[in-house]
Amino acid sequence: MGILVEEVKMWNTPVVGAYLLWSFTKAYRTYHPEGEAPVGILHFIAYALLTDQRLTKRISGNRPNLQSYVRGFQEKGEVDLLVGVHQEVISRRANAMDAIDIAVARGLLVWDVDSGRIYARESLPRAKKGRAMSEYARKLGKKAEILGQWFSQHDALTVASYLKVVL
Predict the structure, then answer these.
(1) Domain count, the chain
(2) DSSP state, 39?
(3) How far apart are CA 44 and CA 67, in angstroms?
């Protein structure tokens, strides 16, 4: 029960969401063929995937790309989870916006309002004594990096199409 409580706290904490979106954004730009930063809408989709355990568990380095991630749901007969991604994006958009706001306020992310792209700071500031990130948050950060890598290979419409999100 303790692990479940910790997970609920993680998912409902915009500060952790800010870290996840920073990890996602940094990886996206690193792996994008032209080094572009992701557009804002992708952060809302990524946040929904990263804060739902059923959707997060299939994000792994063993899968080469977003198509493989989607296929994983089809192979396990869990296509209904994919169909629900759109609703997850909608229901979590306020939390995602809070996470983006915190990340921008803390200097982790910069939102270019002219292009709609969100840029990541190169590295995180050092944690103050006694404020180190939990192992669970670090693991989610790795998943955010994988997701950023996958998303970077497609435009926003293709990502939305694969994940059944209506823009």
Answers:
(1) 1
(2) B
(3) 19
